[in-house]
Amino acid sequence: MSDTDKIKVTILPTGTMHADLTWLLIDPSRMATYQQPEKQREWVEVPTHVVYLEHPNGQKLMWDAGVPRDWETRWAPSGLGQFFPVDAATEDDWLDSRLKQLNLEPNDIDYLVLSHLHLDHAANAKLWEKADTTIIVDEKEKEGAFSFDGHNKGAHIKSDYDTLALDTISEDTELMPGVTILRTPGHTWGTMSLQVDLADSGTMIFASDSLYLKESYGPPPIAAGIVYDTVAWFESVEKIRGIQERTDATVVFGHDANQIRELRTGPGNSYT
């Protein structure tokens, strides 16, 4: 089987934020206690990434849309730039730069699948506003993301997505042979994960914020400071674990600085 007959996946880092670890991991062992009230906060790297997928049927998919170049001004009304500054991004990291590196225009992408509509995953989605691309979100995510008035609700900034035509899924959906969208809610109303069954590399599950970090996965799973529905989150983690154990999948966590350094990333460093 030649590479042209295989699904090809490229992980593209799109800039690194920093944040207090507690947003990502509520770990009692790291918290201040009566005996150790002086414990210090941990200010950690929070890398972001998107995934570009080329299918042997000729279709192209982009998973997520990264953080915005103008994060300081765009995030200012919400105040969230103070908690999640994108303070470690190179010119090559921004999504528009990544598209140029791949010799792609937005209209070349058949599917833009947004794991959820938070400000660090959907910020560049309007690059596809005038494209013929099908943009897919979970139906509960769409419902929740339009359920409020004003600029933002938490990390949902309505102007990131309010003019887009959003198609929805209501169940686990095989979008193309070997490419399945998994419903893994909890982090938000309708957070999704992406399962890709590769010929050489085996199954990969891109968990997005269903699992921030390897430490989040456990066992036991450790929840985060930003979880909409904790019960649903734990159920989604075990759903991912069941698929991972059944398929021996590699789980790619949403914001794990250690893991992203171990993975093959950037144009020309693909998985097949």
From TrEMBL:
Classification via Gene3D superfamilies: Ribonuclease Z/Hydroxyacylglutathione hydrolase-like
Q: Which cofactor does it need?
A: Zn(2+)
Q: Which InterPro entries match?
A: MBL_superfamily_lactonases, Metallo-B-lactamas, RibonucZ/Hydroxyglut_hydro
Superkingdom to which the source organism belongs = Bacteria
Which UniProt keywords are given for this protein, alphabetically ordered?
A: Hydrolase, Metal-binding, Zinc
Family the entry assigns? Belongs to the metallo-beta-lactamase superfamily.
Is Endoplasmic reticulum among the key words of this record? Answer: no
Name of the protein described by the UniProt record: N-acyl homoserine lactonase family protein
CDD domains per the UniProt record, alphabetical: AHL_lactonase_MBL-fold
Question: Residues in domain Metallo-beta-lactamase?
Answer: 47-255
